[in-house]
Amino acid sequence: MRRKGYAKRAAAILMAVMMALNVSGCGSSKETSKVEQQEALAEKEEDGDGLKEILEGSFGLGDKLERNVGKEEKVYVIADAKGNPDEVIVSEWLKNPDHLDTLEDESGLSDIENVKGDETFTQDGKKVTWQANGNDIYYQGTTSEELPVAVHVTYLLDGHEIEPDELAGKSGLVTVRYTYENKTKGEVKTPFLMVTGLIVDENAFSDVSVTNGKLISDGSRYIIVGIGLPGLEESLGMDEGIVPESFEFTARTTNFELPMALTFAECDFLMGDKELSLEEIEGKLNDLTGQYQDGMKALNDGLKKYVNGVDQVADGVKKIDDGARQLNDGANQLNVGIRAAENGAEQLTDGLESAKAGSDQLAAGANELNEAVQGVNLPDMASQDQTLTPEQQSAAAKQIQAKAEEQLGQSTADYVMASVDQSDLADLAVLSGMTPEEQKAEITKRASAALSQDANYAAVRSAVVDAMVDSTKQNLIDAAVTATVSAMKQQGVASAVTVKKEEVFNAAAVVYANAGEAGLSQFVEAVRTGGGSLDQYLAAYYSNAAALAGAREAAIAAAGDDIVDAIASQVSATVDAQVEANMDAIKAACAESINNREDEIRAGVEASVDQMLTPAYVSGYGSATQEVGADVQAFSGKLQQNLPAAIQGVASSYGTAGVKVGADFVMQAVQVQLDGFATQLAALKNGTSRLAAGTTELSTGLGALSQGAGQLESGMAQLDEGSTALYQGSSTLASGTKQLANGADQLKTAGPQLTSGSDKLTEATATIMKKLTETEDKADALVKKINLLREAANNYQSYGGKSDKTEGSVKFFIKTEGVTTD
Fold it and tell me: How far apart are CA 396 and CA 394, in angstroms?
């Protein structure tokens, strides 16, 4: 019940608006003007609420921004059945909330007419002043300005485009497509939401389907509503096909007629003052991803350390196991050896006393060496005077300067002579004594002679000719391929149709005899799509051909052309595939034919090139001769005047700088050698100091060691008792370490698996962070585009014109004419 009532209300609203547009074709008077009737029908509050409900319920637009505007504008476009505008009427509502006596407005409309009152106005250019007398002003006008949006309607019958007047009354599968166009310019297009609605009789159509829209039925009529957002994909840089820019409906009909359709367009749906921002979200996301990345890194590092530790533990346990066994064996040997050590302790005491005496003598000698080395020092070159005396510098500079003048003077003179062609100067002198006419003739003569000898001209001519020959050949080959492919496709389709036509006609006779024209229409569509088989029809035909002869003629008369078109559609793809399969051979044959005519093509190209290049060469030769000659003369004279002074200046600078650089180089080399010796000397001093200190400590230590040897002798007895207990404990340790080694080997085996998992975790974390960064960049770009779209929507407030001081809104209603049999 809710859907049925909803559909009725939608139908009533659409009909009201359509009726308002139909009224616009009638005459007008003060009492019942056409816009007044439009406003009365299209602006009813109940109907307005209903249309809003349709848009929200059908497309989820939600609540739109309601703005307090001072000028509301409605643009009514009357268009033909294909969407081409025939008439544009602009209706303006100029609000007067303060009940002023006069209202100032701006408008680009012509034929302005007050449609709801007697208030008058004066106009100065685009400025319009109304004598409002405290009232709102309702007026209309016309304009030839280009509309910001358009609707293009195309009609298809059984898959083929057809003119609307030819479609009226036809039967078959019909598709009506409404394509929306956004004509606005700028960094982004002004976003327009376009909605098209029409109401059709359910008895006129069947199997109705809608693309990018909705179909509503109240039991007797269909309400078809479609939507589009033209230009939004381009403005947002989105892939094609994501945002609808057209809508269509497809249905079957036996007698095609279509009522008028109404398209509504506005940009208010995207208006607003608050810009989108992702800063807060990005901040939280960055914090979370940072914590996640740090945690993953810590986990990964910990896993690697754990794996390394497991390996070390396993290796260590193995060593412990081996050591325990060795300890058990050694403990037994220790027990035996300790007894021998007791005897050796007495001999150790005697030897230490002799060593103490020798170490005292060594300490005395080391102290003497240290004192001798500490007195050695290297000279400090930094404190020395490293500069040459003025007399030394002057003498060295003169020698360097003399040599530099000799070398520079000779080489520079040779360069100047090589740079200036004396014969050119002579030729220039001859030309300077001639009249302009004589100079022109002489230069033309010389240019013609130079033309045959100029390698550059020959190379340029050859390159131009080759390029033009190649380009001409390629153009001819492309044209030949295009023509050949077109002819092959036409002949292939025609041949296939001829072969199959009689067979399909025979099958059509059986269909027509059993199912009439309705069945014949379905049969033709099946032939077109390649569906079904003709065998059963042909078997029936050949079994009774004489009786079906009349049905065959009737089928041909009713749908003969359609049958031929259907066969052509069916075989077209096969022929195209065959042509494409032979494309390489076609191209090769065309290329061979054109290449055989290369001499003919080259001759024509050379003639054209000579007509272009020869005059240009002669003209350029003369201009270059005069201008370059003057430059050579001026350069030669200046060089002869300034050359000696320039050489002397360079030589003098070279001499002075050379003396300084040479002296610095020698002193730096000496300092480098001394720095190397200083490092070695410091090392020597440090070593002798350490030697002296060490020998003193050695002497002291030997004394203490001698005292301890006595204690060692008494302790050996105690060690003998402890070694027996060590041997017993080492046996128990050897048994336990064997079990520990087995467990460590199992841990070590699992180590590579943990390492592999850790690497995969690291790769996954890197991939996640990369994707998050890419997503964040794309989101920032999208938000920027959306804010630009909102700004464009806010700025587009009038089509007919308004004052900058007035807030406005504008809506477009485009009525497309219906298709009827009348």
Answer: 6
Mean pLDDT of 490-513: 83
CA atoms of 684 and 369, how far apart (whole Å) = 11
CB of 40 closer than 8 Å to CB of 116: no
Q: How far apart are CA 282 and CA 776, in angstroms?
A: 8
Closest of 153, 5, 26 to residue 79, by C-alpha = 153
Q: Please tell me the distance from the alpha carbon of residue 164 to that of residue 161, in angstroms, as a whole number.
A: 9
Apex CA 243: angle with CA 175 and CA 796, to 5°? 105
∠ at Cα 445 (439, 448), nearest 5°? 135
Residue 336: C-alpha distances to residues 497, 667, 709, 724 (Å): 116, 73, 20, 10
Q: Are 480 and 593 in contact (CB under 8 A)?
A: yes
Burial of 523 (0-12, 13-18, 19+ CB in 10 A): buried
**Which pLDDT score is estimated for 533?**
77
Residue 393: how many CB atoms within 10 A of its CB? 16
Backbone φ, ψ for residue 199 (5° rounding)? -120, 125
pLDDT category at 48 given cuts 50, 70, 90 is very low
Smallest CA-to-CA distance from 322 within 749, 739, 734 is with: 734
What are the tens digits of pLDDT across the range 469-496? 888 888 878 887 887 888 777 887 888 7
N- to C-terminal Cα distance for the chain?
37
Cβ atoms of residues 137 and 114 within 8 Å: yes
For residue 754, which of 280, 130, 354, 305 has the smallest C-alpha distance?
Answer: 305
Where do the H-state alpha helices sit in 113-179?
Answer: 164-167
Task: Report the alpha-carbon distance of residue 481 to residue 487 in Å, rounded.
Answer: 10
Residues 6+ apart with CB under 8 A from 481: 586, 587, 590
Q: What is the DSSP string of 615-681?
A: HHHHHHHHHHHHHHHHHHHHHHHHHHHHHHHHHHHHHHHHHHHHHHHHHHHHHHHHHHHHHHHHHHH
Distance of alpha carbon 647 from alpha carbon 654, whole angstroms: 11
* Contacts of residue 209, Cβ cutoff 8 Å, sequence gap at least 6: 215, 249, 250, 251
Give CA–CA dist 350/343, Å, rounded: 13
The amino acid present at 395, given as its one-letter code, is A
Dihedrals phi, psi of 215, to nearest 5 degrees? -120, 125
Could you tell me the two tokens for 676?
């190397």
The answer to whether 669 touches 386, Cβ cutoff 8 Å, is no
Q: CB of 809 within 8 A of CB of 269?
A: no
Alpha-carbon torsion angle 675, 680, 684, 687, nearest 10: 110
CB atoms < 10 A from the CB of 165, how many?
A: 13
Q: What percent of the chain has pLDDT over 70?
A: 55
Q: How far is CA 149 from the centre of its chain?
A: 29
What does the block give as tokens for 662?
Answer: 């040479």
Whole-number Å distance between alpha carbons of 16 and 22 = 10
Strands annotated E in 134-220:
137-142, 149-157, 160-162, 172-182, 193-201, 206-211, 213-217
Confidence class for position 121, pLDDT limits 50, 70, 90: very high
CA distance 418 to 421: 7
> Whole-angstrom Cα distance, residue 62 to residue 517?
49
Which CB contacts under 8 angstroms, 24+ apart, belong to 448-453? Answer: 448/618, 450/621, 451/614, 451/617, 451/618
Instruction: Measure Cα distances from 32 to 115, 124, 360, 472 in Å.
Output: 9, 29, 137, 70
Q: Is the pLDDT score of 142 beyond 90?
A: yes
Sole residue written with tokens 């300077």: 432
